[in-house]
Every structure is written in structure tokens, then in C-alpha cells.
Amino acid sequence: MLRPNNRKFDEIRPIDISRNYIKYAEGSTLIKMGDTKIVCTASVENKVPLFLRGIKQGWISAEYSMIPRANQIRNIRDSIKGKINGRSSEIQRLIGRSLRAVVNLNDLGERTIWIDCDVIQADGGTRISAIIGSFIALYDALNYLKAEGQLDKIPIKDYIGAISVGIIDGEMLLDLNFKEDSQAQVDLNIAMTEKGEIIEIQGTAESRPFSKRNLHELIKLAEVGIKKVIEKEKEILGKIC
């Protein structure tokens, strides 16, 4: 299959991350992954959800949305509809789970880090890009707390990477854009640590089931992409854990 810019089947789109993108947030990024663009912020709140009060543990929670013209056709804002759509709810839970998996919440103390991901242009892989951009924003927010003397150390246990993989006309591809995603017979999103530990696999077959062998091959291909993502994070952050 011929991909845009002659991208190889195991090649991820270029990733560009601008830090401190939002003036007022403790941590923020603008991440560009191909033509997908997302603003991610990490905000510190000195309280935790009710179910965590009194146990000296922190929390990380995420919200995700798209501006109306992030897509080719204008979307109606959730605030107008009066409820969060199911897709957005699913994605923000994925982002929150992914970040909590690589942070020692006990060392965070009784505070919440709110992650906000606003998609300003969508061309596939928005949940993947949101995890990557949010990880950098989260690190910067934690580094801010450390610089202010509120944390002894940055409580990140491992790097996290995420990527999409899919099968189109029998060919396995890494990091699908929107057109590829819409044509895929199989579509997976995978979040994984640098150690190779899986945080989450979200996968579906569109027209027919796929085999366990295909699943294992897709996971191996995803690992190739996740290593490249983490290399980019290390290039930006250096050694952090």
C-alpha cells in the first residue's frame, strides 16, 4: 500500500512537541503527530477525589475533547449537547489509566493532576498523540512541584509510549492516519511502558475476525513504534527514571 510521503509500513509519522505552550498551566504541550495536533495541559489541584481522602495518595484524571472544526465536518460541542459522547469518555479514561500506570501515586501526595487534551486538528491517532503529549506535560507539572519544594522527587516510574496499528487489504501498518484508519479491517491502539509492559490494548475487527497470530504480529509491530515514541520522549526529557 502506498502511504503519504512514501512512509514505510513500520514508520511512524513525524512527532513535534512544543513545551510550555500554555502560559498558565504547570505543564503544557502542543503535540503534532503528522497532521494531528493536540494541546495538552497538566494542572495541579491540592485535593483528591472523595474516595482517596485521608489515605495520602494522589490522583491523575484526564479530560479529552475536540474543537468543532478539528475534523472535516463541524462537530457540535459536548457543552451544547449536554453530555460527553461515548468516544470522548472512553479516550479520557484511557489517558488517565495510562498516566497513572507510570506514576507512583503515593509519592504524589494528596493532590490531583488534571490532564486536559484538546484536539485542534484530527488526522487519526488522536488518543495516541494525547497520551504522548500528556506524558510530557505531566512531567513538567511534576518538575514544577519539585522545584517549588512540594515534591522530593519526580514520581515517574517509567516512560510510556502509545501507537496505533492496523491491517488494510492484508497488510499490517504502523501509526494509521485518518484515511488509513477508516479503511482498516483491523485497528488496534496500544499503550506500553519502556520495559515492554502492556498498559492497554484496544482492538476491533471491522468486517471479519482476526487470528491470534495476527494479534501477536500487530503487537510486535506496535513495539517498534513505541520504541520510536519513547526515543522521542527521551530526546525531549532526558533521563527521568
Instruction: State the order of secondary-structure elements, H for helix, E for strand.
Output: EEEEHHHEHEEHEEH
List low-confidence stretches.
none
CATH superfamily: GHMP Kinase, N-terminal domain
Count the beta strands: 9
How much of the polypeptide forms β-strand, as a percent range?
A: 25-35%
The CATH architecture comes to 2-Layer Sandwich
Mean pLDDT: 95
Please identify the structural class as seen in this structure: alpha+beta
CATH level-3 fold name:
Ribosomal Protein S5, domain 2
Supply the CATH class.
Alpha Beta
Termini Cα gap: 39 Å
Strand order of the biggest β-sheet: 1-2-3-5-4
Oligomer: single chain
Radius of gyration: 18 Å
Q: What's the number of structural domains?
A: 1
How would a crystallographer describe the biggest sheet? 5 strands, mixed
Question: Roughly what percent helix?
Answer: 25-40%
Number of helices: 6
